[in-house]
Amino acid sequence: MPKASEMGSEQSSMPTMKDVAKRAAVSIKTVSNVVNNYEFVSEATRKKVNKAIQELGYVINVPARNLRLGHTGMIALAIPDLTLPYFAQLSSLVIEEAKKLGLRVLVEPTLYSREGELEALHGAQHSMIDGLIYSPLELGMDDVRELDVPYPLVLLGERIFTPDTDHVATENVEGAKHATTYLINSGCRKIAVIGTHPGEELGSAALRFNGYKEALDEAGIEFDPRLAVPARMWHRLDGENAMNELLDSGLVPDGVVAFNDMLASGALHAIQMRGLKVPDDISVIGFDNSEDSQYLSPALTSISPGLEAVARLSVRVLKDRIDGVQPLGIAPDEHVFRKVTSTLVIRNSTRELPASQRN
Amino acid sequence: MPKASEMGSEQSSMPTMKDVAKRAAVSIKTVSNVVNNYEFVSEATRKKVNKAIQELGYVINVPARNLRLGHTGMIALAIPDLTLPYFAQLSSLVIEEAKKLGLRVLVEPTLYSREGELEALHGAQHSMIDGLIYSPLELGMDDVRELDVPYPLVLLGERIFTPDTDHVATENVEGAKHATTYLINSGCRKIAVIGTHPGEELGSAALRFNGYKEALDEAGIEFDPRLAVPARMWHRLDGENAMNELLDSGLVPDGVVAFNDMLASGALHAIQMRGLKVPDDISVIGFDNSEDSQYLSPALTSISPGLEAVARLSVRVLKDRIDGVQPLGIAPDEHVFRKVTSTLVIRNSTRELPASQRN
DNA sequence: CTGTTAGCGCGTTCAG
DNA sequence: CTGAACGCGCTAACAG
């Protein structure tokens, strides 16, 4: 037999249910019953059919089945960039969770373009897909009407809200607030924040900044704008630069909240290069609890956004919508709006809480 | 109209070609012609049909089309772990390249399990997929027969060889050799290597180690086993530990070849923590040229495995096989075996070559 | 428990 | 250049 890879299409000679039926001397329906594990098939016929399947090397033709069933068992996941650890992680978790529910995932990087994001929404693929988990970055509140699509949709993040779709988001504000409060409780008073995006109102930077300020506010610490260092990109080097800038200004903080772990890693490095100690001189907290954070030295205390929960929830909700059932305990006509609680993963880049603060 | 997400399946009410045909007062065939950009359709009818499509919001039904055509326009990419930057990068590039050729990609993480890898190969999905790009980690030469699958397959890496499938690989040996030679030319004589896997023969660690030794050999430098530090995992902390171990032993090298950029990053950190300078005291070279490497300080000199070329080649070859044409300039019955040339990306973690060595 | 029949939506002969 | 009828492989009634 020539290898399929040397032929045009593998479909040409693949055996069908009909072939199996003939060989097993049963009807097509019976084969279908066996293949789909229909309960009421006699053990004898089942064996007969399986034998024929084995001998012919029969594999079910998924496209045909899809056509008949009207769905494909495939969902799409649209994210800005698969090379970002955050999204790679998310994708991996979504794929894993989907698999548990018998769903496959088509990952679609939208590559920071508005076009890409719109195409993910309206592209021709959509008869091929049962639903979409959508994490927009470029689209904003002005684009809400774009979300009126003829298939189930779960929206990730907090850039767009509509009462007409299900949302799953992470706690940006609460997470940053938690981190900042933790630093305050551990004795920090001059807490810098790295990675702000001045002028931005949507997006993680703005939300996390708000959390930071809220924490300060509640603790009665006045916000010092000089301690907020912008960083357009959130790479390691940006964190290093930001931290150096701060240190050069003579304004040495006793704590740092970095808006992601890369920034934190850079800050760590800048601090240590000056002979200062983390956490003795300066505590550092990161964001995202990326896999790397545990491998830094000192291991990085970080806010874990609960990506597992995001993945689990969004896939489950989508699956329910596809199946036409109400997700979770949601009332009819209502939509899921769920914020996943973030947790602070304490490692060695922050000082311990004094005994009085622990519980 | 109720939102689809509140209904069972979106398929129920989607307009078909028949609906479009009726509305445009033409035959189904004509609609099909228009949709598929068949050349010989009068401008008038084309317009008429397009208008009807617009009004009805018609979208072509991909599963039906797939059934008829016998292929799906979808390929799978099986990799060990999507959260590894290397594979995330590769996936992203493959998706991009596939898109250019009108193909969609189903990413399938096999999660370091033999089962997962076998399932990717033989799983039921395969009538749903036109071909597979396959990067095994657990499978070895004993499993060659598993690769006899009824669809086009492109094999990535150097773990399994068969004359019966197309291969695309990166230059592990050559890359490591290149890196080591570069260090030698820049004046290093005591070159450590971090990340070896003693006892392993397949796999990147072994191949890269060979390249390192070849370079030493050619330069007439004797290999000192104490300079080869094993590291099972290739995380940042492993690099840091390995480097510390070396430094503690009193055996201070003047150059380090790390088997990936994470290891290199850790080594960098360990070196700097001792007050030693990179590259003045010790040069460091990494592997993979990951996105992070440029954001380390000093920016990391690294071997770029040419992932773009791997992605481009493997998708192209697969596409050709799917279309039944000979890839590249390959003779019939021959198979592609292509190693992508790696390049050394020189940044600031290595000393400059003396004038005599430059070209 | 099993067989028969009728499409799912599309592309494609083959006539016109 | 266009229309009518067929079948891709499968599942869901409904009989038997």
UniProtKB/TrEMBL annotation, chains A, B:
Entry keyword set: DNA-binding, Transcription, Transcription regulation
Record flagged with keyword Transcription: yes
Record-annotated HTH lacI-type domain positions: 15-69
The keyword DNA-binding is annotated on this UniProt entry: yes
Protein name: LacI family transcriptional regulator
Provenance organism: Bombiscardovia apis
Lineage: Bacteria, Bacillati, Actinomycetota, Actinomycetes, Bifidobacteriales
